[in-house]
Write a structure and sequence with these properties.
CATH architecture of the largest domain: 3-Layer(aba) Sandwich
Distance between the termini: 22 Å
CATH topology of the largest domain: Rossmann fold
Strand order of the largest sheet: 1-4-3-2-5-6
Number of strands: 12
Shape: elongated
Length: 321
């Protein structure tokens, strides 16, 4: 397991004066485009003895403005939880994560103050990598030219990176990934991520209904605006032994048994009932089976679950673990 980056929720850093190689972005999902950026940051930081650093914002600036303008339909869905984002950044050898609260004060900060307070005083930035269309500061007034001028004044270098495209020339982006997940296209999501889509979390107590109908489940909380389509999936479960376990999972609000429930991921392990309360597990999504449904009664629901479990078994018979 790679070391998790040191997390800073405010700047300047309270424990370090080490100069930094920095990139700025939301990094939701850490897809192949992000991975190319992180690889460049790590390589440059290692070469120059700088701390590889990601600066990101919580909530997503678009979510903040959508909420402030009472336009919930403009809020982007969330691909990964903070835990999964931090784990992915660790995997790509990022040493520092500046996770800044996006609020009115940050929205109102001038472009020059953004550079001086966050980049220069905040992280002692010596090298900065951003997209060619990167904008920042109040009303997105800051541009690349201002960054370059400020870099000459404060001693940091600015490098820009073009959009990353796949082998077919298609742009790899978080919005592409959100679209794939929204329709349950796991193959496309895997192409964009470079690996299967995954959600991790601690197993929490549920209503225990699954146990009474022969389908005990491991329950995980997921982001309220989870990017993945609600429905039933064939999955693999990691973290409960040396080997992954075969499973079938339902992501949704359980309309048959619950009213106004919060989004929950319920995972049934196909062979055995592992004791898992409180444990951190990772669920890997392999195949979309069907949409979430509201059934007229429990027996119809159980028949559908029987069918889902058989479909998942068939998948593993065909593809193995």
């Amino acid at each position: 397991m790679k070391t998790a980056p040191t997390l800073y929720r405010t700047l300047p850093r309270y424990d370090s004066r080490r100069p930094s190689a920095v990139t700025i972005g939301n990094f939701d999902g850490v897809h192949r485009g992000h991975q190319a950026i992180l690889a460049r940051v790590h390589a440059l930081a290692a070469e120059r003895g700088l701390a590889s650093t990601v600066m990101t914002f919580e909530p997503h600036p678009r979510a903040y403005f959508a909420q402030r303008g009472q336009r919930p339909e403009l809020m982007p869905t969330q691909i990964s939880s903070l835990r999964d984002k931090v784990a992915a950044l660790a995997e790509h050898r990022i040493e520092q994560l500046a996770l800044l609260r996006f609020n009115q004060a940050l929205a109102d900060m001038s472009a020059q103050d953004f550079i001086e307070h966050l980049l220069v005083e905040g992280l002692d930035t010596r090298w900065l990598l951003v997209g060619e269309d990167f904008r920042y500061g109040h009303k997105r007034n800051g541009d690349i030219e201002l960054l370059r001028r400020s870099g000459r004044r404060f001693g940091f270098e600015v490098e820009t990176i073009a959009d990353i495209a796949d082998e077919h020339g298609h742009r790899i982006s978080s919005s592409e990934l959100r679209t794939a997940l929204a329709v349950g296209n796991l193959e496309r999501a895997e192409h964009l991520l470079g690996h299967s889509y995954r959600i991790s979390g601690h197993v929490v107590h549920g209503q225990k209904l699954g146990r009474s109908i022969g389908y005990p489940t491991l329950n995980l909380r997921v982001p309220a605006r989870c990017a993945l389509r609600s429905g039933v999936y064939t999955v693999k479960v990691h973290g409960l032994g040396d080997q992954a376990l075969k499973g079938v999972a339902s992501l949704g609000v359980r309309p048959t048994v619950s009213h106004g429930g919060r989004l929950l991921l319920e995972v049934h392990v196909l062979d055995g009932q592992p004791s898992a309360y409180g444990k951190l597990i990772c669920v890997e999504f392999l195949d979309f089976l069907r949409d979430e449904e509201k059934f007229p009664d429990l027996s119809t629901m159980i028949a559908a679950i029987d069918n889902d479990a058989q479909s998942a078994r068939d998948y593993f018979t065909l593809h193995g673990l």
